[in-house]
Amino acid sequence: MSFDRENIKATAALLASKGVFIGTSSWKYKGWRGMLYDEQRYILHGKFNEKRLGEYCLPEYAHVFKTVCVDDAHYEFPDRAYLGSLVSVVPKDFQFTFKVTDAVTIKRFPNKPRFGARAGKPNEDFLNADLFANAFITPCEEFRKNVSLLIFEFSRFSPNYYQHCSGLVADLDRFLRWLPARFRTALASSIVKRFKRTDTQTRWNDDGRTTLESLADEPHWLKFV
């Protein structure tokens, strides 16, 4: 497949200069060898090494694109050392989008090994603003100029939790009121599959914070600007 690195780099830079950032969800894809990545950089002992690519390919990615989504943050709170390791290898104007850690977005933990003793149990920290502020926002503060967006991605909700999206909207509204307005937030579009059609949109207060307003008769869903 043809991949014109220099043309895409120039286009991405031009768009970024106008406030439009083009990037991908994660960057650690071995299938991008020979297109975005120079395979020779990731040869170890005469063979391609996928771990080596995952550890060292971000600077090469950032040579072409101006933004990327960090999926790893969805599974574990990002600490200062991890965030620093990302920011230190990209240009100063590079922007990161982070998926919010599922420790605050899962309503009930799935019965999966990675959740250990929590598997199958209700999540007492669902939309816990204090936990999110301390474990996610605080480490990000130092690198705020490189953090463009925080994406909330929710798991499927049982009818026992929310009969209608208005219940989630109310919980989100309380949660978002405690978040610093300097961090932009968004909801993953997949959340529309979690409910029957109920329409909602987000509006901005004068102070820059968000409130959520139900719009039962309008063809909209959750939007963050």
Number of helices: 6
β-strand amount: 15-25%
Q: Which sheet architecture does the biggest sheet show?
A: 5 strands, parallel
Count the domains.
Answer: 1
N-to-C span = 35 Å
Strand order of the largest sheet: 1-4-5-6-7
Class from helix and strand fractions: alpha/beta
Please tally the β strands and state the result. Answer: 9
Low-confidence segments, ≥5 residues, pLDDT <50? 194-225
Mean pLDDT: 83
Portion of residues in helices?
Answer: 25-40%
* Shape, principal axes of CA atoms: globular
Elements, N to C (H/E): HEEEHHEHEHEHEEE
The Cα radius of gyration reads 19 Å
Task: Describe the overall structure.
With 225 residues, the chain is α/β, with parallel strands linked by helices. It has one domain (5-196). Helices cover 26% and strands 16% of the residues. The protein contains 6 helices and 9 strands, in the order αβββααβαβαβαβββ. The strands form 3 sheets. A 5-stranded parallel beta sheet has the order 1-4-5-6-7, with no helix packed on it. A two-stranded antiparallel ribbon has the order 2-3. It has a two-stranded antiparallel ribbon with strand order 8-9. β4 (67-70), α4 (80-87) and β5 (95-99) form a beta-alpha-beta unit.
